[in-house]
Design goal:
By secondary structure, the chain is α+β, with helices and mostly antiparallel strands. The protein has three helices and two strands; from the N terminus they run αααββ. The protein has a two-stranded antiparallel ribbon with strand order 1-2. Helix 1 runs antiparallel to helix 3. The longest helix has 20 residues. The two termini are about 35 Å apart.
Length: about 80
Amino acid sequence: MKIQWLCDSNGEYSYARVIGCICIICNLIWRLYMGVSDINNIWQATVACSGFITGILLWLIEIFRKLPNISIKAGDKEYSIHKGE
């Protein structure tokens, strides 16, 4: 039984998706166990959510790796990245 959203277009498990999912789940379980009362500033919050941040970054890398062209329109300007094949 394969979980489809963890697989890439070839039907194989994607390293970034699997490890990202594991990081997010482990960080959420750890935060539920430890609580949030010991977080008093932005640096402690960054460290406490480092697994979640790592998981999200891995998912974003996986998304942007697959896209051949990316265009973002901000105000009057349009920024684009074209990945060569």
